[in-house]
Amino acid sequence: MPGSQKNLRQHLAKITVNTQMRLLKLLWILFFVPAAYAQSGGYIDQDAVADLLNLRFESLEHIPEVFYRYHVLENDRNNSVLARNVFYRKIGDGNTRLGTRRSMLVEMINRRMMQTYTVGDTIIAPTRFELDFRAYSPFPRYYAGGREFDKLFIMDKTIQAFAAYEYGRLMRWGIINTGDPDVSPTPYGRYNFNWREPYRISSESPEGEPWEMYWVLNFHPNGMHVHQYEMPTGGPMSHGCVRLVDADAKWVYDWADTWQTTSTSDGIASVGAKILKQGTTVLVIGEEPRGKPLPFEHGRRYPVLKLVDLPAHPYDVPPETPQQVMFDELRKSQQIDP
Length: 338
What we know:
single chain; alpha+beta; L,D-transpeptidase catalytic domain-like; nine-stranded mixed sheet; two-stranded antiparallel sheet
């Protein structure tokens, strides 16, 4: 019997050790794995993205200026996961979980997912977080040329970003993917939003693999739209359409105006009817970058955000469809408001 009790105590001790090891493993997962893997495997928390993009200050005047700095990923064991964790703790002021959440902003302004960074890479991060997303905008907060436009939507191919203005005031901006320049580039020029649909299957879908598009706004007669996409980091890669983050696509869908026609139907069914009033003016400017866009000038001491050079006036961008040409002529003859 004493021998049996001794064996029982040894068995319980082993269980206790194993339990402790499992507990330590669980603690590692809870406190370190989220920072290392939350951004990997293709999973993106769209609710967290929406919270980041929808944060609004009372006015543009209340948004502070933001600066940027370099962070080099370092680890003595050449372990990129641990190096990224150090970065998360740094931008999270010692809190890894907070840093992981803040890294979503870093991904968007760099157009690069965190899991692609490895030891030795340099990451650019802002000096301030938890601000209205317009604080990080490459577009000017005020656009004098757009003051007469109640709404104006601009897409810059060089920086792969959009801006939405109301009477020259920046309302929102975000990252995009335009068309692959070697396959189907998004054409430069001036357009208007025409029709919209909340859900649509892309005509470019491979057989048996439907490409679903949400929050679709058409701006080109050849079937080019802006629509939702998971996270449009990287460079131009679409089939001509423009991809937006889900929260941005939904916002633009609700914000923009489409054309008014003689048709009693909405959406694409109105194509071919007489146009009574154009939709929101759309500008496509800039040139496609070869590869990933470069949002920053790399100074020796610190990086500087590149600013988009907007045209002096939206009508300086040439019209690219018969609709725009016709309405330009009507404006010149003062038959419609400018």
